[in-house]
């Protein structure tokens, strides 16, 4: 129950007059504040996202050494359940909390009572003083944000008593490890009193005898002893103050400041965290609100984008110091709406990689401070600044007009359909967002909130990405012999850990690994290029495959059991080429052409390629390609497409068996239907054609040549690139094809 307002002091010395006449300098009035939640206490206060249930406070006038009335108020919590630790320490029950006032009412009473006490003790602006930073940063500010309450400005700055005590007594333990009890122990040691294992009586005696403070029967109530002890510590520190105490308050930033980051910036890894599980539509302001109470560095929120340039639900957050980062890690699995957010450590290099940039155009665009950034997506390629300004309208002007627009372009200057716009305030940005999915020409435009880091990411992505995927070096296309037939001389591994490597598989097979054919380990990746948990192993015989399956079936690998079942080469080929292998039999791969089944491929000899000596030493001489193109007898050989030309088949990585050699990739041979349009002189050379599927419509001759830049295509052979006739297509079919001679 809240005690009545303090009564005027009895006749005697006037506190205000004493304060004015007191030659001892000191800070203004201090409000000693203690709080508790329904969950964890002590060093874990606020880490479990539980509501505040108790506030205890008392005003101290440092200059006159006067104190006000001690107040204690219960707070109604939305979740009435109390943790065993809280129930034991506080002695409170759910019934007593149900009769308490809600947080907004308690904060109003707090402001009124504190103002009255401060006026009686001499007036002036007051400052909060707490035991550590958890109560304000981890409890009051986050809970007020969740409940959409506006905290008074007095909660935006405070003194940390632990730091002030450590300044006066630097020989003690670090400030973050101090507690009210350890500070009280230090006072008793200096006062010549014996500290009996945290007994409160000694502190009460010191408070009553030496400081002239009144004690009563409520001293043993939860929170009362803590506040009175903190008052004793403050008065003790003021007696020996050297003028440095209570001069630099802690500040809680109320607004997140946007700003650019350069690739040359050095970011301390002890100040960065990664937040995972964010709603895709969340902005940097939403992330800053999740971490409300903690001080985020300027431009310190970097939302991560996926390969398609859309947000992937992750963000990197940079704080002003390592202490704020440690407090942020305690918010692991706190909620943003109905979603819980995972918080992990990150590095400064990761933050600079996401948020940093080198473009002068972007730096000029982001040089304006306190601007709200919006992203426009789906603009017509012919749209210019005047078109965008007209689309937004005069009711939401862009800062600087055309200078406040940044169009995203390809390296060759072609527009991408994306742009960014700056707005001077939140109201103008909200007005612009109402134009979401409005029409410009014949296209509807999407508008989203954006960040400086997203601007950098989008520009960096388009500036560094080639027009078409290119090969960094010539690859040696070594075919993998997949003999046709139904003999079950292969085994299929299902349920592999996603982190499994070739070494893990060899260790898993044990003695059976000696029976693997050369280049006989095939790990299947999904269409995102990630491990699918499946692998195929080619054994030397069907008997060896059966023995390996019997020995290793449901054997554990990294806490997961793996199924090992025999299968045929044909079944393996279907799965590797995109088909499925279920209990009902095989389903063919979703290929456009019927000739893409591996057993029907023709054989060709690839162009001789210069390879490093150390790479060639890893292969037997029979695996190296001959110097001249000599037609060979047809052999059932499967050539698999590389990721650059893959559209909707399984991405497959091929790992050779020991001795380990570099990963190798083959190419699709040209279907017979495409050979009819090739010159006779070219057709006389087996394997001279390579068919490219999935080429964009905008690709030109130079773009296609850039893929084969490492193969030294002669200038007079440029005419050998010919388009293939494009029949009626379905949605799943390639948009355009070329035949490269």
UniProtKB/TrEMBL annotation:
Residues 14-23 have a biased composition (Low complexity). It is found in: Nucleus. CDD domains: RRM3_ESRP1_ESRP2. GO terms for biological process: mRNA processing; RNA splicing. Residues 1-28 are annotated as: Disordered. Its main location: nucleus. InterPro entries: ESRP (IPR050666), Nucleotide-bd_a/b_plait_sf (IPR012677), RBD_domain_sf (IPR035979), RNaseH-like_sf (IPR012337), RNaseH_sf (IPR036397), RRM_dom (IPR000504). Interacts with RBPMS. Belongs to the ESRP family. mRNA splicing factor that regulates the formation of epithelial cell-specific isoforms. Specifically regulates the expression of FGFR2-IIIb, an epithelial cell-specific isoform of FGFR2. Also regulates the splicing of CD44, CTNND1, ENAH, 3 transcripts that undergo changes in splicing during the epithelial-to-mesenchymal transition (EMT). Acts by directly binding specific sequences in mRNAs. Binds the GU-rich sequence motifs in the ISE/ISS-3, a cis-element regulatory region present in the mRNA of FGFR2. This is Epithelial splicing regulatory protein 2.
């Amino acid at each position: 129950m809240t005690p009545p307002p303090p009564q005027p002091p009895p006749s005697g010395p006037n506190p205000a007059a004493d304060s004015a006449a007191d030659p001892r300098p000191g800070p203004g009035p201090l409000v000693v504040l203690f709080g508790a939640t329904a969950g964890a206490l002590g060093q874990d206060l606020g880490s479990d996202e539980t509501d505040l249930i108790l506030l205890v406070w008392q005003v101290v006038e440092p200059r006159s050494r006067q104190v006000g009335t001690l107040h204690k108020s219960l707070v109604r919590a939305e979740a009435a359940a109390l943790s065993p630790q809280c129930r034991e320490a506080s002695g409170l029950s759910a019934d007593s909390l149900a009769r308490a006032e809600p947080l907004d009412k308690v904060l109003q009473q707090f402001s009124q009572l504190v103002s009255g006490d401060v006026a009686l003790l001499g007036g002036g602006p007051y400052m909060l003083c707490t035991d550590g930073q958890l109560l304000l940063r981890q409890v009051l500010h986050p809970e007020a944000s969740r409940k959409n309450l506006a905290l008074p400005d007095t909660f935006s700055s405070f003194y940390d008593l632990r730091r002030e005590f450590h300044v006066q007594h630097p020989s003690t333990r670090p400030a973050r490890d101090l507690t009210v009890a350890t500070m009280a122990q230090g006072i008793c040691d200096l006062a010549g009193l014996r500290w009996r294992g945290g007994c409160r009586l000694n502190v009460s005696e010191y408070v009553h005898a030496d400081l002239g403070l009144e004690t009563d029967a409520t001293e043993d109530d939860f929170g009362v002893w803590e506040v009175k002890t903190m008052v004793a510590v403050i008065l003790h520190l003021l007696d020996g103050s050297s003028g440095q105490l209570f001069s630099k308050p802690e500040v809680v930033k109320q607004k997140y400041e946007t700003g650019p980051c350069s690739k040359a910036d050095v970011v301390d890894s002890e100040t960065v965290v990664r937040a995972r599980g964010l709603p895709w539509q969340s902005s940097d302001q939403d992330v800053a609100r999740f971490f409300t109470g903690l001080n985020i560095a300027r431009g310190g929120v970097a939302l991560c984008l996926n390969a398609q340039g859309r947000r992937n639900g992750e963000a990197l957050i940079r704080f002003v110091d390592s202490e704020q980062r440690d407090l942020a890690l305690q918010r692991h699995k706190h909620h943003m709406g109905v979603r819980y957010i995972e918080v992990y450590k990150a590095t400064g290099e990761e933050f600079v990689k996401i948020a940093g940039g080198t473009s002068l155009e972007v730096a000029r665009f982001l040089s304006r401070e306190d601007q709200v950034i919006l992203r426009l997506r789906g603009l017509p390629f012919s749209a210019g600044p005047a078109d965008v300004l007209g689309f937004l309208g005069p009711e939401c002007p862009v800062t600087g007009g055309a200078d406040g627009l940044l169009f995203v372009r390809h390296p060759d200057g072609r527009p991408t359909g994306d742009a960014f716009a700056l707005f001077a305030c939140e109201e103008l940005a909200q007005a612009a967002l109402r134009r979401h999915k409005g029409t410009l020409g014949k296209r509807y435009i999407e508008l989203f909130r954006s960040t400086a880091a997203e601007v950098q990411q989008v520009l960096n992505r388009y500036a560094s990405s080639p027009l078409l995927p290119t090969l960094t070096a010539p690859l040696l296309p070594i075919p993998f012999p997949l003999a046709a037939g139904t003999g079950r001389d292969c085994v299929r591994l299902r349920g592999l850990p996603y982190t499994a490597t070739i070494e893990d598989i060899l260790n898993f097979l044990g003695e059976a690994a000696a029976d693997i054919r050369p280049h006989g380990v095939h790990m299947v990746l999904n269409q995102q290029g990630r491990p699918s948990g499946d692998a195929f192993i080619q054994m030397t015989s069907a008997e060896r495959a059966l023995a390996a399956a019997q020995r290793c079936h449901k054997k554990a690998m990294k806490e997961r059991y793996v199924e090992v079942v025999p299968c045929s080469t044909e079944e393996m080929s279907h799965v590797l080429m995109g088909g499925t292998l279920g209990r009902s039999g095989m389903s063919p791969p979703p290929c456009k052409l019927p000739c893409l089944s591996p057993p029907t491929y023709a054989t060709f000899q690839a162009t001789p390629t210069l390879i490093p000596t150390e790479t060639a030493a890893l292969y037997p001489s029979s695996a190296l390609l001959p110097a001249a193109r000599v037609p060979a007898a047809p052999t059932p050989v499967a050539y698999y497409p590389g990721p650059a030309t893959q559209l909707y088949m399984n991405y497959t990585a091929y790992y050779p068996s020991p001795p380990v050699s570099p990963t190798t990739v083959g190419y699709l041979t040209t279907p017979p239907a495409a050979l009819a349009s090739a010159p006779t002189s070219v057709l006389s050379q087996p394997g001279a054609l390579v068919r490219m599927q999935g080429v964009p419509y905008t690709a030109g001759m130079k773009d296609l040549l850039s893929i084969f830049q490492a193969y030294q295509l002669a200038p007079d052979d440029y005419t050998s690139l010919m388009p293939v006739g494009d029949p009626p297509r379905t949605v799943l079919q390639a948009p355009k094809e070329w035949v490269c001679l």
